[in-house]
Amino acid sequence: MPTWPIILFKINDINCLTDAPMHRFGTKVGSAIEFVLDSATSGKYHRCLGELVGKKPDALQGTLDLLILKILSRGPQHGYGIAASIEAVSDDVLRVEEGSLYPALHRMEQSGLIAAEWQITENKRRARIYRLTPAGQKALDEEQEKWGRLTKAVAKVLRFA
Q: How many CB atoms lie within 10 A of CB 145?
């Protein structure tokens, strides 16, 4: 069975993660969504956890924000470069879909975590270049600390449960 990259995507304002290609979507169940995996239409189901986007971002949206902020802490980049960096740094395990990336960038720009401006790239193409703001750096520091506590706690439970 092939190993697929983990894909961050959004369906009807629900943030999702999957590690397999999708065949078709099922129905929303509470704060989760189920969809059929495309493994020769085998009928296997995969549950994708996510919450509706509201005032407080859910864990997956927060994770995407953290990844974007971390990539931008290395220097300004355009959207495609951010997605490619996340994929490359994660050894092709994480892949951010455009339908999740650009709304996240827009939301983060509106909240002042990042700034953007149109520039001409080295390929002589016009691209929107994103950079981290001081507020974004502060948010990155805070979110990295929270992420460290969370992953440490999960690792503990996995070791001792």
A: 10
Residue 83: CB atoms within 10 Å = 23
What count of Cα atoms within 13 Å lies in the side-chain half-sphere of residue 3? 4
pTM of the model: 0.66
Structural Rg of the chain based on CA atoms: 17
159: left (phi over 0), alpha (psi -120 to 50) or beta: alpha
The one-letter code for the residue type at 45 is Y
Each of the 161 residues of the chain gets a pLDDT tens digit; together they read 444 455 555 554 555 555 544 433 443 333 333 332 333 333 333 334 333 333 344 556 689 999 999 999 999 999 999 999 999 999 999 999 999 999 999 999 999 999 999 999 889 999 999 999 999 999 999 999 999 999 999 999 999 97
Cα 116 from chain centre: 19
- 3-state SS, residue 64: helix
Ranges assigned E (strand) in the chain: 6-11, 14-18, 22-29, 32-37, 45-49, 77-78, 94-96, 114-120, 126-132
